[in-house]
Design a protein that fits this description.
By secondary structure, the protein is of the alpha/beta class. About 30% of the residues lie in helices and about 15% in strands. The strands form 4 sheets. It has an 8-stranded mixed β-sheet, with helices on both faces. It has a 3-stranded antiparallel β-sheet with strand order 1-2-3. A two-stranded antiparallel ribbon has the order 4-5. Strand 10 and strand 11 form a beta hairpin. Helix 8 (about 355-370) crosses helix 10 (about 410-425). It is globular and about 65 Å long. Bound molecules: zinc ion (ZN).
Amino acid sequence: MNWFIYWIRPSKLPMLAYARMISWLVLAAILFLASCAPAAQQEVRPATATSQRAEPAESVTPEPTAVAPTPAPSPTPKPSETPVLPAPKALPTVTPALQIHVVEAGENLSIIAQIFGRTIASIQLANGLQNANNIYVGQELVIPPAPGEGGSTAGEKNGEAPQERSVLPNYVLCPAEEDIEPEGDMTLGHSAVCRIPIVVYQIGQGDTPLVIVGGVHGGYEWNTILLAYNILDYLHENSDAVPPALTIYLIPNANPDGLYMVTRQTGRFTPADVDDDAVPGRFNGNYVDLNRNWDCDWVPDATWRDNPISGGSEPFSETENQILRDFILSEQPAAAVFLHSAARGVFASGCGEIDPPSRSLAEVYSAASGYPLYDVFHHYDLTGDAADWLAAQGIPSISVELTNHESLDWAMNRAGLAALMNVLAITSD
Ligand SMILES: [Zn+2]
């Protein structure tokens, strides 16, 4: 060290004064660096959102972190395990003031809820967390606005009492109750998060019920909902299209939260209402895939293509499915038809083995419509499927997969349904 000091030290300066000068320089350098560097321990980042009122403003959510659709993230997720599923893009939505909290060691949702003065449930909801115990150190959690703060209330601008409004997993605020257009002949129940009615239309008065269900996959398969409305309008306008022996129970949308997530619409809508990225709308408001939540081969960690998705915390954990199950079991229909897209085909059903009555009906629909006939869905392992469970309960069920995600395949499905109705009317005699 001495050689260095001799080299740099002006010869006249006393050693002590020189040392003091060096230490001041070091301190100044540290202070300078500290003032420039980003705060390494920054835990709570205030969002830049400014919209404070519950209006459908064009403001955009400040880069939401991906809502983890996996029910059980490992404590140290490797990059390869990062879900590739719906990192919800910036959607036009009402933007409350969102805060992000990075989970620290020793924290759980209860502690975090206390820190921010929120309920555990509201944090779970805002982050699509099925299980409150499934958080990990380093995870970024959205802290939803407190009731009465920012976009989480409606009616403030009119001087009304603030009203609780829930937020969907992609940060879309649920519709106000008064904005939901009533529809349907009967309300079966309400969606899990936004409490949007799930309705059924009844056509005909016959003794043999046929249930038709659209929209299980919500806004992602929005064409199945429009097809259901098309069927409804057609049957209303052509009363002789329904054989007298039949009663059609048509549920246009079994997943209203999923439709609302990507359209901000309840009931009827147009293709122009659908966001470019409709994928988040596949799930319900708890971010569960409703067609992985029925009690046939059910698993919590389900699959959609290569993506891990949630099948729910247990079979029928989702209120939408409880509603559908209870209604169908109470009606004991001669058949149930589920509309999906876009695997182009008619699929028979069965839990474990193919159910012969379901296969017969799938044959009828396939032959008349021109859709290829399949015994099983072969694209990936299907768990918790609705039609499979119903077939096992003695209710013949088929799944109709439309050709793509836009077309209604109207002529094909009109022909398929007509053939199906005729067969049911004949066999009911
Ligand atoms: Zn589907």
